[in-house]
Amino acid sequence: LLQPLDVHVTRLNQLQPDVLVGQPSLLIRLAKAQGETSLSIGPSKVISVAEVLSPEDERVISEAFGVRVDQVYQCTEGLLGQTCPHGTMHLNEDWLLVEQEWLDEKRFIPVVTDLRRSSQPVVRYRMNDILHAGTCTCGSRTMAISRIEGRMDDVMVLQGDVTVFPDFVRRAIAGAHPDIREYQVVQLSGTEISLFIPDPAHWDMASQALQALFNRLGAREIVVISAQSLYHHDGSKLRRILALRS
Ligand SMILES: [Zn+2]
Prior knowledge:
This protein is α+β, with helices and mostly antiparallel strands. 26% of the residues lie in helices and 31% in strands. The protein is globular.
């Protein structure tokens, strides 16, 4: 995953894979390469793993390869969910007991009990993820998830105890300008946010959108600082929105 993009592109052109699996941050770069025709593959399946797949990235990837982007929801505890034939994520309730700790009317934190393990049972393990309850018409009785929003770690709590869910930030940035693809928002403190966007004009628009969001939520005197590079918190995983806890 740390190989330069050119190496991936050359390999993929040779292999012509039927199934393309990768983190969204890599898939989005491959989608760009496919658009610029340096990459020319026709996978019948594209699967996003390991990072949060935003609706914006999903659309770009799906358009580039002409197929739906499926997701696999996994963690060190095992496979928690996957996309059904209708394109909806379902929790793996054949094997797991999943309880919901509701954050609001649609958001919840899954609390997982693994029914298979007898040696090292996982009992009521509280995941770090924010899921959105959804619906599906495929007939599966397992719980449908409309979205994996992000991690609880990525929820910002600003001065005045104002909670900012990752989706609020994502929507503000997406609404600032449709061409903003590469960005990162990091909460540095209760009043400081760093924003990385390579294009200065986009940066101005996005920082204004963030200020408007914070104002609307009642967070006052928040400073948005310009970051010069992306911050990789754990290994190679890219998190577009994160809160640093001191
Ligand atoms: Zn379904």
